[in-house]
Amino acid sequence: MINENKRSRVLLYAGIIAFALFAIVPYYWVIRTSILTNLAAISQDTGFIPAIGELTLDAYTQIWNRFAFATYFRNSIIVSVAATIISLFFAIPGAYAFARLDFPGRQALFYTAVFTIMFPWIVLTIPVYEVFYFLRLVNTLPGIIIALSIFVLPQNIWLLQGFFRQGIPENIEEAALIDGHNELTAFLRIVLPLSLPAVAAAALFAFLTAWNNFLWVFVLTTDEATRTATVAIYYILGSDVLREWNVLMASLVLLVAPPVVFYGLSRRYVGAGLGGSPGG
Amino acid sequence: MAQEQARSREEIRERYGLDEETFMDRLRENWAGYVFIIPTFIAFTGLFYYPILRGVTMTFTDTRLGEPGQFVGLENYIWVVTNDLFVYAFILTIGFVVGTTFLQLGLGLLAALLLNELRDVAKDWIGALIMSPYFSAPLAGGVVWMWFLDNDFGFVVKAFGIVGVDPPSFLATGMWPFISLIVAQTWHDYAYSAIIYAAAIASIPKEQYEAAAQSGANRLQRFRDVTVPRLLIPTIVILSLRTAWNIAEFSQPFALTGGGPGTRTMILSILTYRVAFVNNNFARAYTIGMAMVLLSMTAAVIYVKAIDEEENLYV
């Protein structure tokens, strides 16, 4: 910035490179293995950067016959889209109420909503499993959808209420109220259309959080027919007795890449400070 | 900023409700609020408030899957506190959470400060690169690190080979699995604090730095006097949120070590899972979970106190 000199520049770049390596090398190791030949993948002599002769895309063609990828991706898309839509339906009005309306009980509800986002979800799966077991929702896609909808709901509320609080000027609603709208119609006709970009961003994040979720799907399903892509990784790694690492890592790349790439590309459109998800 | 917001909140109060005279106006105002909040309230009740209460009552019974269970008083709590594995997992979890949270905080701050020095386009792309671990599924993060640290084909072992040192088995020997868990967890989530800190640093007006520079403050003094005060609230927010989320973390440790070898990295979340869904003992599992809830709710109280200052939520 000011008074910058050569030494501090060098330190800066060294730091940046160290961070980039820390972030990327574990990924690189997986990608590297996924494009190796069967033999090179289980040879300890293969270099950090493998020779051209050791590279092949075979692993990527093999996995399609080996695992039910079509089912996993279909399930992932179905449950993530459904959970996104359902949670937005709940989150949009809720976030608006937290951000702009005042009513008795708002503060109490708001603080319990803060607790929901910090609550250890693994503990919550126990009574929820009991309820789902009773309602025969275990091992069904609707069951997963309901579970994921609540899982992404707090995150959606946070994202949107931050936007409503800061992104929509208050005099817009004021003007709408003077024009004869009530709170409900002012919201539907004026605030909501203005919020579409924020809603789209929240939808993207909800979709990716649902896609990445392991805990709920893992706990609530045992059948392969209801398995999502993220949970499939776990079973694929446990299933292969032959330990064909290139095939295993290729499936990992295929299942991990979509969310990482989407998040990376969308990050700057959504703005800083967004995109967290509770642990699990 | 904070003052301005506080004032505008006053204005909201004035305009809606509190100062209005007629009863009907107030009723109408509250009616709108309740209409908006009801879907959220129903969702929270059905899948949050009720299950939590059900879980707490469960801890006083011997409920298993599919069996309602009998009232047993404090038996589960006595079982839990006298159970060696629970005590071990509790201490291990605290170590895991303290280690990861502070590492994530420190690395995140450093990353944010470094990125802040870059120009806009570079900042965007390098930022996305450095943040990329945060965007992978936590489970995938565990698998990535399992492969990275693999005893036969892992990167780290190979790197040690260059220097000619025989490395320990990172997922098996002594304390190493535990340290691996902390490092992998730090890798996955340090970008969260980097994102929050970057936003806080970006919101500091340039003029303040210029003014400080003109009055003769050097780089370190500018950092101490201008930057640090603006980072206090974000630090509290990151500490409390990350504490709660690191306590709750299940997927990545589960994929990386699964609590093993044996029970050596058995943190509370994995223990809860095993008791609930491997042993099917729901009541005892929720009792173990109560310890996690206790820890995270402490963090939550601190968080609420912190955001109270400046109605700004970071998630």
Automatic annotation (TrEMBL), chain A:
GO CC, any one term: plasma membrane
Keywords: Cell membrane, Membrane, Transmembrane, Transmembrane helix, Transport
Main location: membrane
Family annotation (Pfam families): BPD_transp_1
Presence of keyword Cell membrane: yes
Domain ABC transmembrane type-1: 73-266
InterPro entries tied to this protein: MetI-like, MetI-like_sf
Membrane-crossing segments per the record: 12-30, 77-96, 108-129, 141-160, 190-211, 245-265
Gene Ontology biological process terms, A to Z: transmembrane transport
Membrane topology: Multi-pass membrane protein
Subcellular location: Cell membrane
Key word Transmembrane present: yes
Homology family: Belongs to the binding-protein-dependent transport system permease family.
This protein's name: ABC transmembrane type-1 domain-containing protein
UniProtKB/TrEMBL annotation, chain B:
Single GO BP term: transmembrane transport
InterPro entries found in the cross-reference section: ABC_transporter_permease, MetI-like, MetI-like_sf
Cited Gene3D superfamilies: MetI-like
Presence of keyword Transmembrane helix: yes
Keyword entries, A-Z: Cell membrane, Membrane, Transmembrane, Transmembrane helix, Transport
A cellular component annotation (GO) from this entry: plasma membrane
Chain segments annotated as transmembrane: 31-52, 85-113, 125-148, 168-187, 285-304
UniProt domain ABC transmembrane type-1: residue ranges: 90-303
Subcellular location: Cell membrane
Membrane topology designation: Multi-pass membrane protein
Family to which the UniProt record says this protein belongs: Belongs to the binding-protein-dependent transport system permease family.
Name this polypeptide is given: Sugar ABC transporter permease
Organism annotation: Haloarcula mannanilytica
Biological classification of the source: Archaea, Methanobacteriati, Methanobacteriota, Stenosarchaea group, Halobacteria
